[in-house]
Amino acid sequence: MTPRDTIDVRPITEPETRDWIRALNAGFLRSPEVSERELADRSSYLVPERTLGAFDGDLPHSRLRSSGGTPIVATFRSFPQELTAVGGTPVPANAITNVTVTATHRRRGLLTRMMAADLAAAKARGDVVATLIAAEYPIYGRYGFGPATCTTQWTVDVPRAGLDPRWSGPPAGGRIDLVDAEDVRRIGPELHERFRRAQPGAVSRTDRWWQINTGVLRLDRVPWTEPFYAVYRSAAGEVEGLVSYESDDNWGDAKQPLNTAEVNWLIAVTPEAERALWQYLCSIDWITRVKTGWRAPDDLLPHVLPDPRAAHITTQSDWLWVRILDVVRALEARTYAGTGTLVLEVADRDGLSAGRYRLDAGPAGADCAPTTQRAELTLDVSDLAALWLGDESAVRLAALGRVREEREGAASVADALLRTSRRPWCPDTF
Ligand SMILES: CC(=O)SCCNC(=O)CCNC(=O)[C@H](O)C(C)(C)COP(=O)(O)OP(=O)(O)OC[C@H]1O[C@@H](n2cnc3c(N)ncnc32)[C@H](O)[C@@H]1OP(=O)(O)O
């Protein structure tokens, strides 16, 4: 009997929740211990049918088993999400998270089995895409995922930035006020809804996100210190931006303040709000460094500063990975920079989205349908995912040998249609 034969991959039942969390913690190299608080919290949102475990019936003794049931040696979970396509249409997404395989059971195909089961269910349910944030780059491409958005973190050397030290608030009647957590819970979700519907690559947030990020819900694994919250209102009194940040308490020997402000999150629905919040953060007395947190790679920040070199990049990385489950609906959900036609041959090892598709695209939307016409561009479904939100270039992928032009110039046509003037961005992790 091979090891695989003894391992059953299936959704958990409710009484198996504690053991599943133990396996999850062990897989992420955290203490496997499950507190009552963690059990209560996770039980409040875990959907057993979409929470997979791998059960090893051949394991004689395991500290991963507290209930006396069959030990769980791998975890995987998905939940419903909306992802904003280019142009602002939200598409139903199968968000994947909590993927672990216990160290003793790695590289036996357990992730592959869990992924196959979950993606098949998502496809059957009618989800247009699957999404995840990849712990490591090499894991998910084989399952048809492509890196679709990037993230950047900057650290700003405030004295070098060249901002006017007399600045005391935004121009043109806008204002910034410090608010408390209760205000954030009141105004934040609506502001975020406006934001994410206008931001390709952004995903929906749950109430739980706001509870965790305003200190209502305290988790064992996330230390909590009450942050500062600042809201930007326009001259008309509209809430247009919100930031959560913290500061350390650091003074140099020569009695100079050397404090660092660390941004937990910042969202804005107008450029005025975004510019004003960055200027505010970089103008607080005593703050000599600002760490921006995860931002869009084309964030306004560096160029809000008179000397943009005062902001240096500390992290630049892929972020949201997308797996297209329904090519027709994905391509029809978005708008396009130009008008044109493209015939794509999409390869998909797992067969979920393979086929030849004709796209008739324009600024108002598109028609897409299977076709027998001659293909102009051949590409893997993972590369189509990287192109879909507009962040990747077909010409660049062709140069890398990943996209093949069946008609000369087809990659340029694809770029003219698919690329966007601002880059997609997902501010959230999940
Ligand atoms: C969305 C999220 O939750 S991201 C978090 C992902 N989890 C982690 O990083 C926690 C630590 N790592 C793990 O738990 C496991 O190593 C996992 C989940 C990444 C992989 O699980 P496994 O069961 O070992 O993967 P599986 O055996 O199905 O591997 C399939 C293929 O992917 C490759 N692979 C798997 N993980 C990795 C990796 N981290 N780096 C490179 N290749 C990998 C395997 O070598 C195998 O290749 P092959 O098809 O050429 O033989």
TrEMBL record:
Residues 201-324 form the Eis-like acetyltransferase domain. Residues 327-427 form the Enhanced intracellular survival protein domain. GO terms for molecular function: aminoglycoside N-acetyltransferase activity. One of its GO terms (biological process) is aminoglycoside antibiotic catabolic process. Gene3D superfamilies: 3.40.630.30, SCP2 sterol-binding domain. Homohexamer; trimer of dimers. Belongs to the acetyltransferase Eis family. PANTHER family: N-ACETYLTRANSFERASE EIS (PTHR37817). This is UPF0256 protein. It comes from Streptomyces albiflavescens.
